[in-house]
Write a structure and sequence with these properties.
Layout (H helix, E strand, L loop, with lengths): L25 H4 L3 H15 L3 E4 L2 H8 L15 E6 L3 E7 L7 H9 L2 E5 L2 H8 L4 E4 L6 H6 L6 E4 L3 H7 L3 H30 L8 H13 L4 E4 L4 E4 L24 E5 L1 E3 L2 E2 L2 E5 L6 H18 L3 E2 L6 H13 L10 E3 L8 E6 L12 E4 L2 E4 L3 E4 L2 E7 L6 E6 L17 H18 L7 H11 L10 H10 L3 H13 L2
Parallel strand pairs: 1-5, 3-4, 5-6
Antiparallel strand pairs: 1-2, 2-3, 7-10, 8-9, 9-12, 10-11, 13-20, 14-15, 16-19, 17-18, 19-20
Helix pairs in contact: 8-9, 8-13, 10-11, 12-13, 14-15
């Protein structure tokens, strides 16, 4: 059972600390370190290796079910990991021993028989290995680490991103963690967007900047259960700054947020049970027609990718899926100059390779992968639009030999920016169903915030399709007696149909 605001004080990761009772990950990971070591061993057997050297911090944190605070936005700790699979498995962790003084962590490492050694000692120890087949990822290892392996006495085998792919396969506990943390995170996001609309349109404030907006959304999320910090620097951008894809506001150099321009907010957090990354674009006044059209085309691309169904054959990859999201922009000869999606770690890096959705991502999608879906449109010097959800790749219920996506992000789209005439009846029904799910999920979490509840109800209110009287009769008649004039009339009717 998860509780929302003020039910429990959030634990925030201290820089440099490794572990604590809340950072021992077995209760959230769904897979113990012993089980992960067995998976690694089975993988290495296929590579004909009996030793592995790891330098990627996310891989080390994942295997050991530990998290740290050495890297901003990333709950990892500086370290190397050496695992020797002989008659007995031996695990050597190279890091700063002073960071592991928490009694719970000390006992945890002792129970697993993990040897904690000073960070630089790995270079000495690698030189002492003899007669081993050593697996190492040449893509991520530094030159000094590779050179420390005595290739005269050992065989060095490039295992590429094999451990990363193991980590990509989220288990049931991790997937449910993503679902639950997105509910709480979505409530925090909606509370902020509602607060901002109230400040601008009711209180007529003119002193809220992009930077103070970013600080405020963090304030709303800080009190959420299992909150550990931001997963990246918040992108809070109004008007022309929104066209800068990775814009970051600064206190002394940013714009005031108004209800006269498009506002783009890309933000996310680290929770003990998952990592979030969500973007919503809103307009608190009256948007221009072109802004509505481009927002709607971005939304249609997002929904098109979300509804994709494809064979579960370990062939379909991100480059094949990318065009789903660009389809409606390409129709009007527009595009965006970034990838459509990236993998997401489970209380790890918000960007997790090697999967992704872009023209250059070749790793096939599989059941259990988690990625983002974030098409956009950017008009230089005027505005930016991006809609980002997190999706779980899973087997289709109707046919498990096919894969589909489940959107786990819980935040309404901006109804004032949608040009409903561009949506089909099926599109409208799909958006209405999503908004009902968002409302029913978030309303109980926001019951003590009347401003947020009112905003949520407004944004999630279903859109009603405008019926065209006698359309079928007129359509049939025109098709039977079609002239050039009738053709024009029929096309006009079809355009008005939805």
């Amino acid at each position: 059972v998860f509780f929302f605001f003020k039910q429990k004080t959030a634990y925030e990761m201290q820089r440099g600390l490794v572990g604590s009772e809340m950072c021992i990950r077995d209760r959230y990971s769904g897979c113990s370190t012993e089980e992960k070591l067995q998976k690694v061993k089975a993988l290495l057997n296929t590579k004909k290796c009996n030793v592995i050297v790891l330098s990627s911090l996310d891989e080390i944190a994942w295997i050991l079910n530990l998290r740290g605070g050495d890297i901003e936005f990333n709950p990892m700790f500086l370290s190397y990991l050496l695992i020797v699979f002989d008659a007995k498995t031996e695990v050597f962790l190279y890091s700063d021993p002073a960071k592991f003084k928490d009694p719970t962590v000390e006992n945890y490492l002792k129970t697993l028989d993990i040897h904690l050694l000073p960070y630089p000692k790995i270079f000495e120890d690698l030189k002492t290995l003899k007669g081993k087949a050593i697996g190492i990822s040449l893509d991520s290892a530094n030159a000094k680490l590779v050179q420390a392996i005595n290739i005269k006495e050992n065989t060095s085998i490039d295992i590429q991103d094999s451990i990363q792919v193991l980590k990509l396969m989220k288990n049931t506990v991790e997937l449910n963690g993503f679902r639950e943390c997105h509910k709480r995170d979505g409530a925090g996001l909606v509370a902020y967007l509602a607060w901002l609309e109230h400040q601008l349109n009711v209180l007529n404030r003119t002193d809220i900047t992009e930077f103070t907006g970013a600080e405020k959304v963090l304030e709303f999320r800080k009190s959420i259960l299992n909150f550990q910090g931001l997963s990246f620097g918040t992108i809070s951008s109004i008007g022309p700054n929104g066209s800068v894809i990775h814009y970051e506001p600064h206190a002394d150099n940013c714009k005031v947020i108004t209800n006269k321009e498009v506002y783009l907010l890309d933000s996310g957090c680290q929770y003990l049970d998952g990592t979030t990354d969500v973007t919503r674009t809103v307009h608190y006044g009256v948007p221009r027609d072109i802004e509505k059209e481009m927002y709607t085309r971005v939304l249609l691309g997002n929904l098109c990718l979300e509804r994709a169904i494809f064979p579960n054959n370990k062939v379909v990859n991100g480059s094949m899926l990318d065009m789903y999201a660009r389809k409606y922009l390409w129709e009007v000869c527009e595009d965006y100059c970034h990838g459509t999606g990236h993998g997401v770690g489970h209380f790890l890096g918000v960007h997790e390779g090697p999967i992704g959705i872009s023209l250059y991502r070749k790793v096939p999608f599989e059941d259990g992968f988690v990625c983002t879906n974030e098409p956009g449109y950017y008009k230089d010097g005027e505005y930016g639009i991006r809609i980002e959800n997190q999706m779980i790749c899973k087997k289709c219920e109707k046919n498990p030999s096919y894969l589909c996506f489940e959107n786990v992000t819980m935040a309404p789209y901006s109804k004032s920016l949608i040009d409903w005439k561009l949506l089909s009846k099926q599109d409208i029904e799909y958006v209405n169903a999503y908004h009902k799910k968002v409302h029913d999920t978030l309303a109980p979490l926001l019951k003590d915030d009347p401003i947020a509840l009112k905003y949520l109800a407004k944004e999630c209110e279903p859109h009603v399709c405008q019926a065209i009287t006698d359309l079928s009769v007129s359509y049939t008649h025109l098709r039977a007696h079609e002239t050039s004039l009738h053709l024009v009339c029929r096309l006009l009717l079809e355009k008005k149909k939805y």
